[in-house]
Amino acid sequence: MANEYKLELRGVSKSFPGVKALDNVQLAVRPGTVHALMGENGAGKSTLMKCLFGIYKMDAGEVLIDGQKVIINNPDEAMKMGIAMVHQELQPVPARSVGENMYLGRFPVWKFGPFQIINHKKMYEDTEKWLNEVDMHFDARAQLSTLSIGQMQSVEIAKAVSHDAKVIIFDEPTSSLSDNEVETLFKIMENLRKRGVAMIYISHKMDEIKRIADDVTVMRDGTYIGTWPAKDLTIDDIIAKMVGRELTNIYPAKDRTPGEVVMEVKDLSSIHERSFQNVSFNLRKGEILGFGGLVGAQRTELMEGLFGIRNLSKGEVIIHGKKVVIKNPKDAMNAGIGMITEDRRARGIFGCLSIKDNVGVSVYNKFLKAGFILDHAKINKVVDESINKLRIKTPSSKEHIANLSGGNQQKVIVSRWLANDPDILIMDEPTRGIDVGAKHEIYEIMTDLAKQGKAIIMISSEMAELLGMSDRVVVMCNGKKTGEIDTEDEMTQEKVMSYATMF
Amino acid sequence: MEKTKQQKMRDFLINNGVIIVMFILVIYTGVTNKNFLTTGNFTNILMNMSSRLVIALGIAGCVITAGCDLSAGRMIGFAACIAGTLLQKVDYSGKFFPGMKPLNIFVVLLIVLAITGLFGAITGFFIAYLHVPPFIATLAMMEIVYGLALIYTNATPLGGYVTQYTDIASGKFLGVSHLIWIAIIVAAITWFIFNMTRHGKYMYAIGGNPQAAEVAGVPVKLTMILIYMKAAMMYGLAGFMLGAKAGGASVNLGYGYEMEAIAACTIGGVSVTGGRGKVSSAIIGVAVFELLKAALQYLGVNANAQYIAIGIVIFVAISLDIRKYVAKK
Q1: Choosing a second label site near A118 at 20 to 30 A (CA), which of A85, B96, B261, B324?
Q2: Phi and psi for A284 in degrees, rounded to 5?
Q3: pLDDT category, A150, cuts 50, 70, 90?
Q4: What is the rounded average pLDDT of the residues B274-288?
Q5: Nearest CA in chain B to A420
Q6: CA B169 centroid distance within chain
């Protein structure tokens, strides 16, 4: 009898110094199905996948493919056994072309005896073929760094598909995709299902799981909780199993009344024609203003322009009735604006520095003795206070931020800005890559801040979050503001989507 | 999970490998050669260390921001020549500025610091505002400074210094050479800057993640200029010290010292990928270097072969050091 499972992991354990990351975990994936692997961040999903790929060496446990025991020592061997991964954190070579990234490590070649010369023509033709396969139409010779994050991800997916892999792991593939791109991905996955590919799907987005998954395996704190057919579980069931507790309401109540206008933005335009153009909006005290739109709508760019990171061709910013000129982040901070960036690892945290230094970096000007000596006692006090207040899970403020989970890292960044006490806080995808429990905490922090009278701008690509958190929503498309939703009744998914697609 | 005794021992050995090997080498040299473990010899080693430490502390700032400074060696030579020309005895026969009275030694030091500081600031400007990679910018400045030194001195070696100048090396305060005092003071000031000022914290932040530093409101450009300016002033001071010690100078003084300083920093634990490094790292690195050189000399190792030994130490030290940061499988 043919083996029921394409891929099996049995009794996998893995310890890191001080932590037991995986304890006797199992996973069995049937061919031609999508198997959702669920769990909060830190539950051990990524560690399990890294063990499968030989990136980590497992302390105990075995891998079976088609019922045969195999040993995988590195990602290259995994690939040869037909296992491919679409990474959660993209690992491309941005300075090279799309084609080179697709065929990195397996370039098509002309052979001349022992010599090999790369066949560029074939490489680019094949790349275009695979891109077409995943319904993406862009130049295979384009430099990867010129693509959006969503497009880069498509390249990764096309790459996995091109491997003709029998097992494909999707590690949070949709976290940076627009809704259209998600649809495209699901179409491809349907296709793969028909071809009998076994897929492991890691995502925090429940609605996606309900749509696409056949089976669900839940992990919690490095242990295996169980496997169920997806149709037998409700979203609430899954969440309950993941967190080990019932989550009643994930978004805090919007019981606040926004006050007077604190910031007016008029006709803000980028120096690049294809970026944001003529965007105007108002921000009021004590409100959360959501910014919705598809990936590539230039919301992040707009905020970076406002914060002085990008150059403006025209536009006016009026804060508390006074016109301000913002040429760099320092000016923005002096004008009372704080900014939490979308890409936490690249532009938020200082990985090799302590929590204390990560919080302190923006506020050293406030903690000086004799005008130039850092007052470490006061800084420690502020940092310890925020660790307590925001419930940052860490042994001490001296811990390196790189050792914290995504949710706790985000809280450290929030602490940095709170220590700075801005009137206006821009939060770009504040809960990206953060687990359900920590998300809820971030939402509560945001609501508290709004109640204290801070004005918050939140960019969010998660529809539920956008609608659940915002008092008002501005929708952008292709660099332009296409709509503004001011009343709770009109705040619907359909309305946002219709504005977001007004090309 | 508790670490076993064995694991702890292993970690200790890896983390302190270079220092342990150094101790063994020093003890071995001391046992086999009774002139090695003497006060005189150690004073000598400390004297050599003093100027090297000043250079290493300057370059440490550049390395912590994931840069480097190739111009250090030529700056040292230029600084020593400027100081030399202004501090010759009136009656010295080969005097550079015949008939000129030697200036006040502190005035000369200020002149040297101002000139090197200016050149350092120019390098920093190119790095910060025009985004020239530090490797290239400092390479360019290295050439420029060398050329200026050649033109200025006409490649003539200098000598015949006033005693106030040479006293900086030969004179003592509380039984300790002025050179060593200068190094101690510079180390203390550097520690203060690295740990107790905004500038120091900004330096670590830029080294750790320059993009995040910008978003966090760190004055990245100004900080970078200050780092290279401060570093160049320290090379200037080191050149001034070396001139005093040698009692003379030529344009080639200090040549290659920049590489030894970068190596010393990394041996001591300043990460070339940026964001990590302390004053103690530079001190340890320089000590390892100078002790190694002295020990090899006492052991009668061929002077040419010493280069090979130093190269091997760099390989081993950095390989061990990197292990601390590379994620374990």
Answers
A1: A85
A2: -105, 155
A3: low
A4: 90
A5: B216
A6: 17
Backbone phi and psi for residue A288, each to the nearest 5 degrees, phi listed first: -110, 115
Chain A residues with beta carbon closer than 8 angstroms to that of B219: 330
Q: What is the pLDDT of residue A90?
A: 57
Contacts of A396 (CB under 8 A, 6+ apart): A355
CA distances to A358, A360, A388, A416 from A419, rounded to whole Å, are 11, 8, 14, 5
| pLDDT on residue B2 | 52
Query: Best mutation site among B4, B215, B272, B326 for testing chain A: the one with the most A CBs within 10 Å?
Result: B215
Provide Rg for chain A, Cα atoms.
24
Dist. CA B206–CA B199, nearest whole Å: 10
Mean pLDDT of B1-8: 67
Residue B213 forms contact with A (CB below 8 Å): yes
In angstroms, the CA A244 to CA A261 distance is 42
* Mean pLDDT of all residues belonging to chain A: 86
Say if strands A312-319 and A261-270 run parallel, antiparallel, or are unpaired: antiparallel
Interface touch A18/B196, C-beta < 8 Å = no
Question: Cα(A280)–Cα(B139) distance, rounded to whole angstroms?
Answer: 48
Q: How far is B254 from chain A (nearest CA, A)?
A: 33
pLDDT at B64: 93
* Residue reference for tokens 């890191």: A16
What Å distances lie between residue B315 and A291, B16, B301, CA to CA? 52, 15, 19
- CA-based nearest residue to B113, from B234, B222, B257, B224: B234
Choose among B29, B31, B58, B64: nearest CA to B45: B29
| Mean pLDDT along residues B275-284 | 90
Predicted-assembly ipTM surpassing the 0.90 threshold: no
Q: Report how far apart, in Å, the C-alpha atoms of B172 and of each of A101, B177, B178, B179, B180 are.
A: 64, 4, 5, 9, 9
